[in-house]
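Researcher: Next entry in the queue.
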Amino acid sequence: QVQLAESGGGLVQAGGSLRLSCAASGRTNSMYILGWFRQAPGKEREFVTAITWSGGSTYYADSVKGRFTISRDNAKNTVYLQMNSLKPEDTAVYYCAADRRWPGSSYQRQGEYDYWGQGTQVTVSS
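Model: Structure for this entry, 126 residues:
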């Protein structure tokens, strides 16, 4: 089992910044990929970004490129999401997700991730 715990969400003005954290625990030794998804009210959950645990390769949705940065601290089993230049449309519940396998070209599909955090609310006001 793998447990994921997000933190760092909150309320911020448009143009501001937040940093989310996702701490992984349990059987994390073979974790391959960790990512972030988000879901706004009335919308489907969408891919935001992902990072491979060992190689550090990163992947971003077009909507957040240049504004969001994903990183990881292997020693702390923690993944970070730095969010800059936040917009009201970034308002959503943000979920940390992980899987022990490389999903290949399907890394943007939520069904490829076996482990999920409970989510943290990010609200951007204008």
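Model: Residues 103 and 112 are 6 Å apart (CA to CA).
Researcher: Noted, moving on.
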